[in-house]
């Protein structure tokens, strides 16, 4: 059963992706080649990208266009060793 407000909004939409979506994609370049990602937008302004093959790691996150996820510089290495190099 659909939510009544959703059904009302649906009458004005050409495509339901205007309200919310989850899109599966695959990266094609760099060290992440072949990595699957899921881009999600929930309609209230929250948008994020997760990597299902890496424990649902949160890659990017923004709320109403303002970034809220920390992103390390390219090539950053952790103190525990080289295994983090391409993570």
What is the domain total for the residues? 1
Number of helices: 1
The overall pLDDT average reads 81
In angstroms, what is the radius of gyration? 17 Å
**What is the CA–CA distance across the termini?**
42 Å
Find the structural class using helix and strand composition: mainly beta
Question: How many strands, which pairing sense, and closed or not: the largest β-sheet?
Answer: 5 strands, antiparallel
Low-confidence stretches: none
Dominant shape:
elongated
Q: Order of strands across the widest beta sheet? A: 1-2-3-4-5
Helix content: under 10%
Q: How many DSSP E strands?
A: 5
List keywords for this structure.
5-stranded antiparallel β-sheet; 87 residues; mainly beta
Q: Can you walk through the features of this model?
A:
The chain is mostly beta strands and 87 residues long. It contains one helix and five strands. The protein has a five-stranded antiparallel sheet with strand order 1-2-3-4-5, with no helix packed on it. It is elongated and about 55 Å long. The mean pLDDT is 81.
Briefly, what is this?
The protein has 87 residues and is mostly beta strands. It has one helix spanning 4-10; strands at 21-26, 36-41, 46-51, 57-63, 66-67.
Write the layout of secondary structure elements.
Layout: H1 4-10, E1 21-26, E2 36-41, E3 46-51, E4 57-63, E5 66-67
Antiparallel strand pairs: 1-2, 2-3, 3-4, 4-5
């Amino acid at each position: 059963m659909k939510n009544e407000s959703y059904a009302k909004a649906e009458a004005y939409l050409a495509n339901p992706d205007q309200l919310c979506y989850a899109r599966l994609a695959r990266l094609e370049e760099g060290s992440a080649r072949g990595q699957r990602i899921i881009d999600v937008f929930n309609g209230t302004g929250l948008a994020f990208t997760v990597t299902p093959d890496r424990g649902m790691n949160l890659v990017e996150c923004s709320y109403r266009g303002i970034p809220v996820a920390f992103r390390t510089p390219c090539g950053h290495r952790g103190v525990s060793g080289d295994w983090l190099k391409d993570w």
